[in-house]
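To illustrate the input format used throughout this study, we show a single complete record. The first block contains the structure-token representation of the backbone; no residue identities are included at this stage. The design step must infer an amino acid for every position from geometry alone.
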């Protein structure tokens, strides 16, 4: 590791320890002034490797980014064209910032009635930004993680997303409860502004430039095609490029057969059959990498082709990774064969099941995740013996 990076890590360690004097910044001025976007990921990843938790880093990440902001803002990188993957993400960010900036006038007016009347619309607007975050987590993050080990630092970014989601949920609860103390509401809005401005800053100063440095045009096109599985908040939905994404992914032998002692299927038949099942199916191989997922007509959780080959730990928010570790460990040790969860999700009732897969000798070969919306199943009573298509 080059000496410059060692010094930057040392500087960050001092910030984590609470040392924030101007003299410390001046001590590391040469390194601070030459920092680049990819350096930030290397620094974050090294902190994680040295035992610092994502939650520990969250406390200081904004302070550190602000120290580096001037240097990061001077970084030279190839700006994306409109209606490309990064181009759309940047346009969504611009619309978000415009709305936040405009709402500042409501805050400055100190009109309590107007504030309470206009806040619900702002919160609904912010909620749409979740589609933007999902595209980062399910498309951009996997591509970056496959390029360099240092991009494991994206865990910190995902944790920031979850912090913003939680703050938005709490703000909505405050509105629903119709609390009379506007000071509490203003404090909550201040928190939201800080988080959303911060997410945009980190994307455009760090994440997007770093991605552009290591990811080529074919992969960006593949990412853009996958992004059409999500909404495009705040902007006009672009025209989808007329390119078959299969041509951008590893080839599969569609003439092959899936053969077992109970029959055989062409790969096409198998693909159609699995995707027709009213459930999401994901297979994680014995090395903990996502190897396959089905594409039913309606999904409970987002999945994109970008996750293929991604370590399953990176497919979950940092706060829930410990549960993934528990399940995988128990399955591999042979202590457990199944884990069930059921949750309420956006008005739906989801049953999520994990199954340990073992070969004829009992050796662990992977984990199968099956997720299903079960509201209609729970509502079943009596019997149905007649066909009632009409």
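Output of the design step:
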């Amino acid at each position: 590791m080059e000496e410059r990076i060692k010094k930057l890590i040392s500087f960050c360690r001092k910030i984590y320890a609470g040392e924030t004097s101007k003299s410390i910044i001046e001590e590391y001025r040469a390194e601070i002034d030459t920092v680049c976007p990819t350096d930030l990921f290397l620094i974050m990843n090294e902190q994680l490797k040295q035992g610092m938790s994502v939650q520990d880093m969250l406390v200081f990440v904004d302070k550190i980014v602000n120290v580096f902001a001037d240097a990061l803002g001077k970084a030279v990188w190839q700006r994306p064209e409109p209606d490309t993957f990064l181009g759309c993400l940047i346009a969504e960010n611009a619309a978000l910032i415009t709305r936040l900036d405009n709402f500042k006038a409501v805050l400055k007016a100190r009109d309590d009635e107007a504030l309470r009347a206009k806040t619900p619309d702002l919160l609904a607007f912010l909620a749409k930004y979740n589609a933007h975050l999902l595209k980062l987590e399910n498309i951009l993050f996997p591509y970056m993680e496959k390029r360099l080990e240092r991009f494991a630092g994206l865990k910190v970014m995902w944790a920031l997303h979850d912090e913003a989601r939680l703050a938005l949920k709490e703000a909505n609860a405050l509105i629903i409860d119709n609390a009379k103390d506007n000071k509490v509401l203003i404090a909550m809005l201040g928190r939201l502004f800080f988080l959303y401005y911060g997410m945009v800053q980190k994307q455009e100063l760090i994440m997007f430039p770093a991605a552009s440095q290591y990811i080529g045009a074919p992969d960006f096109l593949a990412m853009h095609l996958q992004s059409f599985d999500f909404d495009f908040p705040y902007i006009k939905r672009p025209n989808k490029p007329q390119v078959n994404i299969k041509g951008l992914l590893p080839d599969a032998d569609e003439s092959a057969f899936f053969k077992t002692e109970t029959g055989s299927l062409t790969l096409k038949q198998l693909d159609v059959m699995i995707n027709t099942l009213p459930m999401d199916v994901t297979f994680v191989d014995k090395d903990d990498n996502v190897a396959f997922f089905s594409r039913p007509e309606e999904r409970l959780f987002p999945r994109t082709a970008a996750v293929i080959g991604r370590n399953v730990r990176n497919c979950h928010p940092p706060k829930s990774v410990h549960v993934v570790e528990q399940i995988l460990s128990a399955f591999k040790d042979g202590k457990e064969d199944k884990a069930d969860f059921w949750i309420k999700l956006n008005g739906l009732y989801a049953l999520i099941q994990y199954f340990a897969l073992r070969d004829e000798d009992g050796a662990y070969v992977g984990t199968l995740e099956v997720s299903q919306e079960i509201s209609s199943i729970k509502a079943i009573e009596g019997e149905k013996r007649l066909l009632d298509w009409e």
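Structural context for interpreting the output: The chain has two domains: 1-249, 254-378. Strands lie at 257-260, 263-266, 280-285, 290-293, 338-345, 348-358, 364-373.
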